[in-house]
Specification:
By secondary structure, the chain is an all-beta fold. 0% of the residues lie in helices and 56% in strands. The chain has one domain: lipopolysaccharide transport protein A fold, CATH 2.60.450.
Length: 163
């Protein structure tokens, strides 16, 4: 049985730049984020260790600016229940809805404090595909709010000619 979890709308800001004005969760589908998975383990009790939600099986995130798919995702919460970070694992695919880029990796980490997305190599290099280039590296760090990318370890860029 599939489960839908629209309560984590904050992930909408995780992988793309925030609008200049803060956004609030909306009741309409167009401004909300939905996470779908086969199951969810949710721990929001501070007495039971770190607050987190673990989404397992066919994880799909749909938000206004991007879609993400993974086999598993853990969302970590601060004491005030704000999202601190997230970790997506196994076959992670993130596509911007404007079609400008797509990332593929085995593991992706997003840190809300530093506002950075880190794509990590497990067995194969992650990659970022855009219209004019594809970047491969052992570790790719994206700063979506700054439109900046850095790589670590073995790196390669393939440039494509514009049509």
């Amino acid at each position: 049985m599939k489960r839908y979890f629209p309560f984590l709308w904050i992930i909408a800001t995780c992988l793309q730049a925030q609008d200049s004005a803060p956004t609030a969760p909306a009741a309409t589908t167009t401004n909300s984020t939905t996470i779908e998975s086969d199951s969810l383990d949710l721990n929001l009790g501070s007495k039971q260790g770190k607050k987190q939600g673990i989404f397992r099986g066919n994880v799909k995130v749909d938000e206004p600016r991007f879609t993400m798919k993974a086999k598993e995702m853990t969302v970590f919460f601060a004491d005030n229940d704000a999202v601190e970070s997230l970790e997506a694992r196994e076959d992670v695919v993130i596509k911007r809805k404007d079609g400008s880029s797509e990332t593929l990796s085995e593991k992706a980490l997003y840190d809300m404090t530093d506002k950075k997305l880190t794509l990590l190599k497990v067995a194969k290099q992650p990659k970022v595909i855009s219209k004019d280039k594809t970047v491969f590296a052992d570790k790719i760090i994206l700063y979506p709010e700054e439109d900046k990318m850095t790589t670590e370890g073995a790196s390669r860029v393939m440039l494509q000619k514009a049509p």
